[in-house]
Specification:
139 residues; 60s Ribosomal Protein L30, Chain: A; globular
Amino acid sequence: MTKHIVEIPENNAVFGKTTAAFANFGYSAAVRAHGHLFIAGTIGRRADGTIPETIEEQTEIAIGRIEEILRLENLDLTALVDVTSYHVDIHQHLPGFVETKQRLVSPPYPTWTIIGVSGLASQDLLVEIRATAAYPDNA
C-alpha cells in the first residue's frame, strides 16, 4: 500500500506552534492512501496554543484546520466525504456548533456523525473533528 503523510509546515499560520503535538503524541495530521485523505481529529486550539472558551470559536478553528490540511493537498471542504465530531456537554454546545458548522460548510455535504463524550485531550476542549476526504477521480 502506498501512503503519503501530509506534513504541516512549522511556520504554518493556522497551526502555529501547535504542530509540535504531532511529534509529541506520535501521529500524523493527515495521511493520503487509496484516493482518500484521512484527517486526524482536529481541535479548536489557536495557533498560539490557547483554547477559546466558546464552542463557536473552537468549531471555527477546528474546521479551519481541516480546511488548511485540505488546502495543502489542493482540496477544499467540498472534498469531504465523511466526518465525525466529538462533543463535550453535547446538549449544551450542539446549537452553537451547528450554527457555526452551517456557516462554514456548504453543499455538497459529507456524511457527519456527532458523538457526545465525557472529555477530550485537554480539559477546556469542547469539540474534536476527524474527517475523510476523497481526491478527484482523475488525481
